[in-house]
């Protein structure tokens, strides 16, 4: 039985029943503009009800904890540090299931993310932007220790994170491509998405390449020092526990400017409005797809979130 049942035209019992089963689309005009030898496609995770790929893990981590008896609606308080989208996913789940949620987020996160969290009823605390995710994690741990009945999903450490991607995201990709995908590219935030996908699909598809993307300005997974960057959602500044980097074939470094430019291009050319980290993924897809050996092969990227979540950021400057 699918963890996320196929959508139909009946009434759903809850907004949570609409998580998953996101579409994948080709990018014909981008391919033509760039002369790409490869076919390029994006899996549009912004079709999830909370607008991002993180809806999958927000729901999965809460369901897993409930099944273990660790939390229950009405008595437990969820506390989580996040750059935004996981917090929004947890806020969606918390509202639908009846939990109180406290989110700790670096101050550099977009205004849209902050307002969405408050709209969904979450309590939001901001930490200094210069301290990045590490600062948010430290503050969340302090809140956890001081709050009775508090529980932290720990998206960077929780095995339910890659597990749900192995069970759902990977299976959707396999179904939608008929098993004929050659390269899968995604941004590395927690690393759970690509870890789960690689775990599920590499044994079935010999030669499948799974490639991660991180900000060039904070290329920790490539052995460099952490630094500030504007690609929200990836580049946490440390190697997450759920990331099984040995399953990846490469980690590509994409500069901020390249990410912004690629996000604007895919919106203008194919009408696919993606966020900043998805722009970094598209930039990496164009690099890989330009390889002569990729002629006729399929490169699929994970579009983690929607452009409107970044209206107040540099993505929309000059527009």
From TrEMBL:
Residues 16-289 form the Tryptophan synthase beta chain-like PALP domain. The keyword Amino-acid biosynthesis applies. Pfam families: PALP. One of its GO terms (cellular component) is cytoplasm. GO terms for molecular function: cysteine synthase activity. Its cofactor is pyridoxal 5'-phosphate. Keywords: Amino-acid biosynthesis, Cysteine biosynthesis, Pyridoxal phosphate, Transferase. It catalyses: O-acetyl-L-serine + hydrogen sulfide = L-cysteine + acetate. InterPro entries: Cys_synth, Cys_Synth/Cystath_Beta-Synth, CysK, P-phosphate_BS, TrpB-like_PALP, TrpB-like_PALP_sf. Pyridoxal 5'-phosphate binds at residues 85, 189-193, 277. Gene3D superfamilies: 3.40.50.1100. Its EC number is 2.5.1.47. The modification N6-(pyridoxal phosphate)lysine is found at residue 54. It is an enzyme of class 2 (transferase). Pathway: Amino-acid biosynthesis; L-cysteine biosynthesis; L-cysteine from L-serine: step 2/2. GO terms for biological process: cysteine biosynthetic process from serine. NCBIfam families: cysK (TIGR01139), cysKM (TIGR01136). Belongs to the cysteine synthase/cystathionine beta-synthase family. This is Cysteine synthase. It comes from Roseococcus suduntuyensis.
């Amino acid at each position: 039985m699918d963890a996320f049942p196929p959508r139909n035209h009946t009434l759903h019992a809850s907004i949570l029943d609409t998580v998953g089963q996101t579409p994948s689309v080709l990018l014909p005009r981008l391919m033509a503009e760039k002369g790409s030898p490869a076919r390029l496609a994006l899996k549009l995770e912004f079709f999830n009800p909370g607008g991002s790929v993180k809806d999958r893990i927000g729901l999965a981590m809460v369901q897993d904890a409930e099944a273990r008896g660790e939390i229950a609606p009405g008595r437990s308080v969820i506390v989580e540090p996040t750059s935004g989208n996981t917090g929004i996913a947890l806020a969606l789940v918390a509202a639908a299931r009846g939990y109180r949620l406290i989110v700790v987020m670096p101050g550099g996160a977009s205004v849209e993310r902050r307002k969405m969290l408050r709209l969904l009823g979450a309590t939001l605390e901001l930490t200094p932007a210069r301290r990045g995710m590490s600062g948010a994690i430290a503050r969340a741990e302090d809140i956890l220790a001081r709050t009775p009945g508090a529980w932290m999903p720990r998206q960077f450490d929780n095995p339910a994170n890659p597990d749900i991607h192995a069970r759902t995201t990977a299976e959707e990709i396999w179904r939608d491509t008929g098993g004929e995908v050659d390269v899968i590219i995604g941004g590395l935030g927690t690393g759970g998405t690509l870890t789960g996908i690689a775990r599920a699909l590499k044994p079935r598809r010999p030669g499948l390449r799974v490639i991660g993307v991180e900000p060039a300005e904070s290329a920790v997974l490539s052995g460099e020092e952490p630094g500030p960057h504007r690609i929200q959602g990836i580049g946490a500044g440390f190697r997450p526990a759920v990331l099984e980097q040995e399953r990846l074939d490469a980690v590509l470094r994409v500069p901020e400017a390249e990410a912004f430019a690629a996000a604007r291009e895919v919106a203008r050319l194919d009408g696919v409005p993606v966020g900043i980290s998805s722009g970094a993924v598209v930039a990496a897809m164009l690099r890989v797809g330009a390889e002569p050996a990729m002629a006729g092969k399929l490169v699929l990227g994970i579009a983690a979130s929607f452009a409107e979540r970044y209206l107040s950021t540099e993505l929309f400057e000059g527009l």
